[in-house]
Amino acid sequence: MGDQRSSFTGKLGFVLAAAGSAVGLGNIWRFPYLAAQYGGGIFLLVYIILALTFGYALMTAEIAIGRKTGLSAIGAFKALDKRYAFVGYIAAIVPVIILPYYSVIGGWVTKYLVAFISGQAPVADASDAYFGDFIAQTGEPILWFSIFIGITAVVVFFGVEKGIEKVSKVMMPILIVLALVIAVYSVFLPGAMEGVKYYILPDFSKFSVTTVLAAMGQLFYSMSLAMGIMITYGSYIKKDVSLESSVKQIEIFDTGIAFMAGLMVIPAVFAFSGGDPAALGKGPSLMFITLPKVFASMPGGTIIGAVFFLLVLFAALTSSISLMETVVSIFQDKLKLNRTWSCVIVLLISVLLGLPSSLGFGAWGDILFFGKMSFLDFFDFISNSVLMPVVAFLTCIFIGYVLKPKAIIDEVELAGKFKRKDLFVFVIKYLAPICIVLILGFSILEAMGIIKV
Ligand code: PFF
């Protein structure tokens, strides 16, 4: 980062920029399939509890560290305490792992947009096969993945993020309205009420440690936490902006969109497949299989589908741009590369790392990690279920016991009273570190098949 740091013009500018990074495929694609897979209402409940505690405390801490030091993750940890510089480095690895597979999914969205525009959208009863056949191919998904990451790279290379952000400020509200329309339509499909109940009412018999781990990983992912992004955003905020209310607004925005995405998808799974566990457990494919069925049954569905995928593409692009921008600036700073080389190298690495994720549903489909995970699931697992909890844990320990919460509280109080100060201290010092260690331990043992929880 240069010495002349630009800053957001005010609170609104900051909240919108952070929301642009936060709202993306995580909300629209990842949240619904996890909620469907991990018991519906119980997942939603755990997620909301975590958002109000872990999410809120960690986001406040990260933004405050950024604003206090005026630096991005690696520099910020180093400036506060040299011994903890490694936390910044681990955080910096996360976007390097996420960007490639994020772009594979972005490619699927691009393909669906073009299919809907050109009138080749999958019809209702064929959408399972349509999607399955598509991702099982070698060339086509790679082509769409390359287009998506190519657009991202061009935007980052020419530094025209502002242009995209402007467009996305118009697109985002339209996305919210359209998602609302689709959600209402989904909820009233025949047979969908069972799905609404499944999604909203918690069934405690479905609770397990894996539910909490999945919800926690999703929370970090969706809110762009535990990977240094919010530290960087924090470094651009002026001192008189209230961090507490900004965090609240970003969380409401992010969670609201995720909730609505669940409402679009999960009731529809019940309407079309009667809530069959196999249909609910479809994982990464869920959105691409279920939503075309919804669109096929809607009047004007092809147009609605095209508009929907266009909006999702924009949400995905603002997120992938913020991911790539982060990685490019790390390469620039740490390897002392100029921007052009840094962009080229990041693009090459991302394409290389993305290929296995793309091929993992076809040509390389036999390669499974821990006996069950495809490449994409594996990269997703390593970043969301391992590295991000580790970074979150270390951040809590660092702030709770090394830097001390007071440093963060003072930073927050530059713009007025820190209302939920006690909750913040309790979460950072005790609740989050203890829970993260327990959850992480169980989940790794479970993934390796050593225990069954
Ligand atoms: N929060 C984004 C999403 O939910 O889609 C994913 C993401 C974007 C994570 C940008 C990190 C990031 F820097």
Q: What would your notes on this structure say?
A:
The chain starts with 10 loop residues before the first helix and ends in a 6-residue tail after the last helix. The mean pLDDT is 91. With 453 residues, the chain is mainly α. The chain is globular and about 55 Å long. It has a single domain, classed as Hydantoin permease, CATH 1.10.4160. The protein has helices at residues 11-22, 25-37, 41-69, 73-80, 85-117, 127-136, 139-158, 161-187, 193-200, 209-222, 229-234, 243-273, 277-280, 286-297, 301-334, 339-359, 375-403, 405-412, 421-447. Residues 21-22, 24-27, 95, 98, 221-222, 224, 227, 229, 319, 322-323, 326 line the site of 4-fluoro-L-phenylalanine.
In a few lines, what is going on in this structure?
This protein is mostly helical and 453 residues long. 76% of the residues lie in helices and 0% in strands.
